[in-house]
Amino acid sequence: MSPTLTAADFPPMLTAVCWVLLTVAVACALFVTVDVVRHPQQMRVMAFVWPLTTLFGSVLWLVFYLRRGRATAKGHGKWIGTAIDTSHCGAGCALGDLIGEFGLVAFPALATLVGLGTLYDDRIYAAWIVDFVIAFALGIVFQYFSIAPMRQLGLRDGLIAALKADTLSITAWQVGMYGLMAVWQFAVFPSVFGGRASALSPEFWVAMQFAMLAGFVCAYPVNAWLVRIGLKEAM
Asked: Which helix (H) or strand (E) holds 4?
């Protein structure tokens, strides 16, 4: 098993670049957070969704928000609406991964609760399980607060509708994200730097930004299909 690398184990220039990229993403998220207060969204949950998406999408998603997601933006077609749907799905995944990764750092014993040491010996699988569970739960909550008001559904029917609408899309997102993170953690980082990136290193989170974009690419066609068969509505 490859050793875990901290920021001190990476080239200083790479670490500096990664910190800059993360700072830009956080700045974008802060800007959008303020902007959604000044320009309230029709769906209240989007006030949380847009800042979270800029944490991985950075400047690209900031431009997307300003052009297509802002409350003052003009109407958009089915494909843009599906992209917003997919971003909505990604917001839960982004928040879930943040909570899951830092939660495992703060409480390492959580890994044993999901099978580390009994079902497998590699901590990365424990992290992925915890991340998925939290991301899935948050994604369903976000979808509930979108679909229930739109369709005027009660709690039970709203949760069922949210599960139908987002189970496949969240799963597709996580598969794409984990797929690219596996490439980073099992191939790129070990071969180039001699180990895996720690969740406390900026390199890990920049890799996660790219992985989240891969998740978007995988989840988009699934969301388009769900819209086409009527389980979701393009925003």
From this structure: strand 4-5
| Contacts of 75 by beta carbon, 8 Å cutoff, 6+ apart | none
| Rounded Cα distance, 16 and 22, in Å | 10
pTM of the model: 0.91
Instruction: Report yes or no: 167 and 144 within 8 Å, Cβ to Cβ.
Output: no
Contact at 8 Å (CB) between 40 and 47?
Answer: yes
d(CA 20, CA 11): 15
Helix (H, G, I), strand (E, B) or coil at 233: coil
pLDDT in tens, 58-94: 999 999 999 888 866 655 667 888 888 888 888 989 9
Q: Which residues pair with 4 in a beta bridge?
A: 196
* The Cα angle at residue 115 between residues 165 and 102, in degrees rounded to 5: 70
